[in-house]
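[audit] Reproducing an earlier prediction to check determinism. Same input, same settings, fresh worker. If the tokens differ from the archived copy the diff job will pick it up downstream; this log only records the rerun itself.
[audit] input (119 residues):
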Amino acid sequence: QVQLVESGGGLVQAGGSLRLSCAASGSIFSINTMGWYRQAPGKQRELVAAITSGGSTNYADSVNGRFTISRDNARDTVYLQMNSLKPEDTAVYYCNADIDRFGVLTGYWGQGTQVTVSS
């Protein structure tokens, strides 16, 4: 059994900052790529940022330069620091992790955390 538990969402004014956290727990051998996705009402889920186990990162063009993804491998935790937030960043943010359990690599999702940016 594996769980991804997110925290840190909320309501913030435009220009403000939030920090999301996502901790993985359970029977985990190793974690490959971890990432954050978001889904706004009426839109498809989209990749926001991802980070490999070695620390390589990639970002959606819309957040590049404003958001920073990082991870603590010892804690099986990934973070998303969001600065200069805009109303268009409003969405449910989901954590995703590719987890190796007993030699099988499987993608897992968190339950989602709401981020609302007011203008």
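[audit] rerun output stored. Observation attached for the diff report: The mean pLDDT is 96.
[audit] end
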